């Protein structure tokens, strides 16, 4: 082997010398404007096999040395980072523009589980912070919507809305969600005003994003990303109701929602697989939720031609929303959006209390994050019997829940319970998303009663029974016998009595919960 290397090396030197002579010879021939195909007499072909060995060994050595130098430089630039309460490994990797696997390797982590206060190493030299553009600077440079150096991801989607479904590209950056249609068209609204189809959402106006896998009318599956908003890009409106909107933002309570459905084909016409569509929707929802939870800048960039404004009694009371004031940006109610998605959530079971119409009306009033879910019946005293203990065992750790009752006077009423009921607990639990409702059987209409913010008496549960809402008396109380209950006006929801008398007998009682994806 040594002789081979020596032989190759000597031939390499000779070849280099001959190559230089050849180049000089060739240049002289060109200067004299003569064309010749003759090579120098002493030109020889080198040993190619030996040269390949030499070059391979040399390249490997150079690569190892380069990687070592880069690793040494990179290790010198590592800094310590303290994990915050809302941090995840994915979010930290996104923030510092590195992959999760590498972050785990440099910290000797065996899983992606991290905890608040934990100190981990992150690269300093590629630290990525979310861009903050001062408002005055933004006004002076409105042509630059986002930093072109910002890492972004692009997806082929369909913007689903109550006007028309528009196909285009969704671009996600650390501070913006952008939608650009394939065709830069305009449409006319009811007031004959032209509406641009582009959409731009600042991360400051987003609470979270979720994805759904829904069957469409053709029997296939659609992959949907829903973005829940705390702002709608209307400065005058948001300034007028700033305190209420800030409180909603802290509570992760949304006032509007938009939907994007994953496209069936890419820009070349190639069909996406089901796995790719699902993975992309998970990525979109996860990226947006992580980005908006870490975003701190205040940049008024949100512009949406189509959104669904979430109307409920709470907002009407607290915000006194004038629909005409924001009619140029708000969409129709949820039913219109269900139609645009070619999907309507259903009850996965037979109900003695709900009709198809009243069920949909109740669903329109629940938090937007659950409005595309189907609902399964988890308890029915007609089937499961009147056992309070068994009922609590069935709904343990499950939320949200729809409770609906029909009494022997044929009154129908119930509650949306936003939090889990973990058997017996002391005091009141729950959140302001809980509400009571009753149904006008003659009109087939639902009346909802939302949190008044006068107290926080949402859910009470002990060995005597289950109560929803309180004041001087419970708004709705189910006795542990599951045979009778009580209905009264209460401070929590300002509801009327739902029954003919305070005490009523239960004819039907059903509990429903969302179908898990």
TrEMBL record:
Keywords: Mitochondrion. It comes from Paramecium pentaurelia. Its main location: mitochondrion. Signal peptide: none annotated. The keyword Mitochondrion applies. One of its GO terms (cellular component) is mitochondrion. SMART domains: LysM (SM00257), TLDc (SM00584). Residues 79-122 form the LysM domain. The keyword Transcription regulation does not apply. Belongs to the OXR1 family. This is Oxidation resistance protein 1. Transmembrane segments: none annotated. It comes from the Eukaryota. Residues 352-515 form the TLDc domain. It holds the Pfam family LysM. It is found in: Mitochondrion.
């Amino acid at each position: 082997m040594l002789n081979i290397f020596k032989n190759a090396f000597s031939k390499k030197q000779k070849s280099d010398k001959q190559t230089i002579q050849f180049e000089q010879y060739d240049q002289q021939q060109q200067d004299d404007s003569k064309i010749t195909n003759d090579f120098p007499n002493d030109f020889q072909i080198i040993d190619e096999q030996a040269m390949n060995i030499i070059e391979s060994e040399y390249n490997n050595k150079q690569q190892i040395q380069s990687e070592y130098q880069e690793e040494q430089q990179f290790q010198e630039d590592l800094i310590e980072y303290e994990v915050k309460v809302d941090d995840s490994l994915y979010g930290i990797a996104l923030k510092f523009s590195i992959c999760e696997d590498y972050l785990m390797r440099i910290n000797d982590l065996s899983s992606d589980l991290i905890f608040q206060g934990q100190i981990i190493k992150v690269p300093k030299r590629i630290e990525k912070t979310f861009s903050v553009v001062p408002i005055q600077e933004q006004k002076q440079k409105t042509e630059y919507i986002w930093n072109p150096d910002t890492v972004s991801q692009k997806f082929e989607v369909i913007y689903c809305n109550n006007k028309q479904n528009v196909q285009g590209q969704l671009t996600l950056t650390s501070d913006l969600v952008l939608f650009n249609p394939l065709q830069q068209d305009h449409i006319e609204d009811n007031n004959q005003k032209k509406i641009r189809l582009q959409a731009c959402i600042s991360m400051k106006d987003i609470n979270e994003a979720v994805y759904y896998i829904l069957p469409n009318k053709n029997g296939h599956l659609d992959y949907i990303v829903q973005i829940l908003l705390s702002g709608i890009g209307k400065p005058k409106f948001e300034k007028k109701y700033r305190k209420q909107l800030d409180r909603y933002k802290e509570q992760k309570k949304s006032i509007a929602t938009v939907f994007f459905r994953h496209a069936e084909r890419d820009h070349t016409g190639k069909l996406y697989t089901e796995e790719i569509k699902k993975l992309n929707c998970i990525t979109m929802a996860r990226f947006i939720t992580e980005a908006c939870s870490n975003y701190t800048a205040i940049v008024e960039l949100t512009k949406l031609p189509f959104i669904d404004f979430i109307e409920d009694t709470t907002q009407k009371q607290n915000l006194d929303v004038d629909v005409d004031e924001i009619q140029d940006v708000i969409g129709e109610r949820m039913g219109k959006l269900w139609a645009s998605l070619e999907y309507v959530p259903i009850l996965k079971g037979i109900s003695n209390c709900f009709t198809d119409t009243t069920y949909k009306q109740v669903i329109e009033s629940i938090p937007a994050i659950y409005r595309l879910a189907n609902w399964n019946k988890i308890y029915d005293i007609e089937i499961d019997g009147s056992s309070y203990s068994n009922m609590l065992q069935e709904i343990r750790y499950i939320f949200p829940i729809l409770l609906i009752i029909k009494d022997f006077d044929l009154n129908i009423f119930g509650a949306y319970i936003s939090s889990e009921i973990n058997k017996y607990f002391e005091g009141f639990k729950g959140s302001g998303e809980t509400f009571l409702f009753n149904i006008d059987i003659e009109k087939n209409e639902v009346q909802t009663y939302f949190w008044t913010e006068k107290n926080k008496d949402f859910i009470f549960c002990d060995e005597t029974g289950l109560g929803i809402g309180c004041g001087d008396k419970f708004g709705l109380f189910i006795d542990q016998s599951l045979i009778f209950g009580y209905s009264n006006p209460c401070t929590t929801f300002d509801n009327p009595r739902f029954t003919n008398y305070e005490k009523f007998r239960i004819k039907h009682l059903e509990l429903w919960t969302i179908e898990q994806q």
